[in-house]
Amino acid sequence: MAAHRNVDAASLFARARAGDRVALPRLLSLVERGGDRAREVAGIAYRSPGQAYTVGITGAPGSGKSTLTDQLINQARERGLDGSDRVAVLAIDPSSPFSGGAILGDRVRMQNHALDDNVFIRSMATRGHLGGLAVAVPDAVRVLSAVGVPVVLLETVGVGQQEVAVAAATDTTVVVVNPGWGDAIQANKAGLLEIADLFVINKADRPGARETRRDLELMLELTQLGDWRPPIVETVATAGNGVDALWTIIGEHRAHLIEGGDLDESRRRRLAREFHQILLTRVGQQLDALLAEDRFAGVVADLLSGVLDPYEAADRLLDGLLPDA
Ligand SMILES: Nc1nc2c(ncn2[C@@H]2O[C@H](COP(=O)(O)OP(=O)(O)OP(=O)(O)O)[C@@H](O)[C@H]2O)c(=O)[nH]1
Ligand SMILES: [Mg+2]
Prior knowledge:
Elements: H1 9-17, H2 23-33, H3 35-47, E1 53-59, H4 65-78, E2 87-92, H5 102-109, E3 119-124, H6 133-146, E4 151-157, H7 161-168, E5 172-177, H8 183-189, H9 192-195, E6 198-202, H10 209-221, E7 232-235, H11 243-260, H12 262-291, H13 297-304, H14 310-321
Parallel strand pairs: 1-4, 1-5, 2-3, 2-4, 5-6, 6-7
Bound molecules: guanosine-5'-triphosphate and magnesium ion.
Magnesium ion is lined by residues 65-66, 102, 105-106, 155.
């Protein structure tokens, strides 16, 4: 094959580490697109030292996640985590009807940091990536880690299984709710209660914060908790109120994880889940290819004509594939 003009992944990493502003976005684009080059990038990132601390910020559409994230960038810059003042933001665009305009909105709300070399902001979509968000996001975080970013803030809409799973796959998960009757209950229904390391009641300038806090406390009473009880922080993200306290608690949660040895343990668990997801995707691909083969056409025909029920058809296929199963 003729030599192509693509710069190889290793030199993109070298350039990104040296502070090249173009190289890092290119690496992340490669990850988003999936395929062989994404795999090459992921492989280099995986073997590089350094692991960024990840903070997930999730909650209902419009709850103030981006405004809050913008404030957390300030905290990360001024106070850091463990002494480091660089920070990256990944705003996940779930490509769902909920996200119309989200990318533009996020950019506008975080544009204060556009000229700061120590802040990297990126909206991420994963349309080409077969493993979906569950595989692409950890790869993107590893790329950021590999180029020396110490803290990654991950904004995801807390709607839909995939997004909730991505939000949960962070070291500290912040669940954002708003004041008002039923908001905490909605968050619970979306599965956000189980994944929260701490709760933020944002828009606390509006009435109902006390009721929301009470709802959250009641629901926490009913939940099996480990040795960390998720704190509840009230914020007014638009004014920056409460954000200082929020960053302090994020730091406390991190210290708690490190002291108890839970940080490494939960990262290992996440890696095992990621591996499982990669395997599922691969097996699914192979299965689709096999089903298209002639030798299995008869089984499918027998299923469709009612000779085999779906379980028998599956047995028949698997018997052919896995002789000893
Ligand atoms: N009153 C009030 N409004 C706020 C507060 N925080 C955010 N907002 C407003 O709420 C709206 C949504 O804020 P975003 O930060 O875009 O919310 P988001 O959760 O990122 O929204 P999506 O990414 O679209 O789901 C904006 O108009 C904000 O100005 C707050 O503390 N109080
Ligand atoms: Mg947003």
